[in-house]
Amino acid sequence: MIRGIIGALVGREIDRRDGSGGVKGAAIGLVASRVLSRMGPLGMALGGAYVAKKAYDRRRNAKRGTSI
């Protein structure tokens, strides 16, 4: 279950960067979750850290009043 959640969040963050949306983000999230789970606990930690960093940056920029 955690693999699916982290994969979905990674896909969403990558898709936000591109700005297109939809199926591309879902496909990237699916592939990312498979790759990260094959890497074991380290891969899941890397995926979680990527999502956490993006969320931290977004929150910091929202407080500052700027947008990415």
Account of the protein in words:
By secondary structure, the chain is mainly α. It is 84% helix and 0% strand. It is built from three helices and no strands. It is flat and about 40 Å long.
Q: Strands, helices and their partners?
A:
Elements: H1 2-18, H2 23-38, H3 41-64
Characterize this entry briefly.
84% of the residues lie in helices and 0% in strands. By secondary structure, the chain is mainly α.
What features would you highlight for this structure?
single chain, 68 residues, mainly alpha, 3 helices
User: What is the ordering of alpha helices and beta strands?
Assistant: HHH
| Inertia-based shape | flat
Biggest sheet statistics: none
Structural class: mainly alpha
> If you compute it from the alpha carbons, what radius of gyration comes out, rounded to the nearest whole angstrom?
13 Å
User: How many angstroms separate the termini?
Assistant: 30 Å
Question: What's the total helix number?
Answer: 3
Q: Which percent band covers the strand fraction?
A: under 5%
Number of strands: 0
Average residue pLDDT = 78
Helix content, binned percent = over 70%
Low-pLDDT parts are: none
Number of domains: 1
